[in-house]
Design a protein that fits this description.
about 140 residues; alpha+beta; PH-domain like
């Protein structure tokens, strides 16, 4: 789901919470060592997202927030904030070329540069949390 989340709208907040769950409570955030990523620099995106990013001259960057049932990738363009909401069952993460991670949901994708240890550590945390909380697959039975 790709949304404009610039304004506090109960309908949009409800949609996001239904898709990926409500934010973690503070004690769980501390236990996990934080739920937000460092600043991620975007190298490539799908057409819909690229059309928004080229409208301004700022550096293309985003951040990722962990939720109980998925992630939210947020970025800004023209003083508006947009979110790509991805439940874990639709999330695909690939480590491509040297220091590039690709985040996919259906036909949307964002490729980010991962040139620091903090970013690599965050992606490892995200994938470990996804694996630990995924429902049991048929192959595991």
């Amino acid at each position: 789901m790709f949304l404009n989340v610039s304004y506090n709208n109960k309908e949009i907040t409800g949609k996001v919470d239904d898709e990926v769950g409500k934010p973690f409570p503070l004690n769980e955030r501390r236990a996990m060592g934080g739920i937000g990523s460092p600043k991620l620099f975007i190298t490539e995106t799908s057409v819909e997202i690229r059309n928004l990013l080229i409208l301004d001259n700022n550096t293309d960057s985003c951040n990722v927030e962990l939720r109980p049932n998925g992630i939210i990738v947020r970025f800004r363009s023209l003083l508006e904030t947009f979110a790509l909401v991805i439940p874990y069952y639709k999330l695909a993460v690939y480590k491509g070329d040297l220091a590039i991670y690709s985040i996919y949901r259906d036909h949307y994708f964002i490729k980010v540069r991962s040139d620091t240890k903090a970013i690599q550590k965050f992606f490892k945390k995200m994938l470990d949390y996804k694996a630990d909380n995924a429902p049991t697959s048929i192959e595991d039975l």
